[in-house]
Amino acid sequence: MKREALSVVFVRSSPALRRSVGPHAARIRLGSIEFPCRIGRSGVKADKRESDGASPRATLRVLRGFWRRDRRLPPRTLIPLRPIRPGDGWCEVPGDRNYNRLVKKPYAASHEDMMRQDWLYDVVLELDWNVRPRRHGRGSAIFLHLARDDGGPTAGCIGIFRNRIDLVLGKLSRNTRIIIR
């Protein structure tokens, strides 16, 4: 059976949920299917900055994905995936030459560990935020990854609940545009 990806996926802040949950409450729409997801603790901002806790108001595409081979089978998706390795990190220092890029640990500049102890990055997709051109301080590591079970915010990424992640991944390709509003 041939799978077809969606051309557009919408992620939007949810005013109804925002009142009860907080500014990080959002909804994702995949064609006719819509369900809750999570965004940054500061909601959505047009002027995204490093460490502001906001998700960027932007149209993004998926560049590639990663998954924890030691915790799950590879997801079924049209996105190119590779296993997360113990030495994988993501540089988050605006002045570093590898800012907003995958790096090999140990790495001198501050970086995020891609092989997290929690399960948020058991599946993670790199979105093309601040990639070309890279502007230092504009924000790094805007990913689509698993949401916290308690429904808490992300640091600016899109968090998908575990019971929906495989559905989402099955609808995406590198040509899909993710519109955050």
H/E series: EHEEEEEEEEEEEEHE
Q: What proportion of the residues form beta strands (DSSP E)?
A: 25-35%
Classification by helices and strands: mainly beta
Query: How far is the first residue's CA from the last residue's CA?
Result: 33 Å
The oligomerization state is single chain
Most strands sheet: 9 strands, mixed
Q: Look up the CATH topology.
A: L,D-transpeptidase catalytic domain-like
Shape: globular
Assign a percent range to the helix content: under 10%
- Put simply, the count of helices is 2
Which residues sit in consecutive blocks of at least 5 with pLDDT less than 50?
A: none
Q: Kindly state the mean pLDDT as a whole number?
A: 95
Number of strands: 14
At the first level of CATH, the class is Mainly Beta
Number of domains: 1
How much is the radius of gyration in Å?
15 Å
CATH architectural name: Beta Barrel
3D architecture notes:
The mean pLDDT is 95. This protein is mainly beta and 181 residues long. It is built from two helices and 14 strands. Strand 2 (25-30) and strand 3 form a beta hairpin. It has one domain (8-180): L,D-transpeptidase catalytic domain-like.
Helix-strand layout with pairing:
Elements: E1 8-13, H1 15-20, E2 25-30, E3 33-38, E4 44-45, E5 55-56, E6 58-67, E7 81-83, E8 88-91, E9 102-104, E10 111-113, E11 123-127, E12 143-146, E13 158-160, H2 162-170, E14 177-180
Parallel strand pairs: 1-14, 4-5, 6-7, 12-13
Antiparallel strand pairs: 1-2, 2-3, 6-11, 6-14, 8-9, 8-10, 11-12
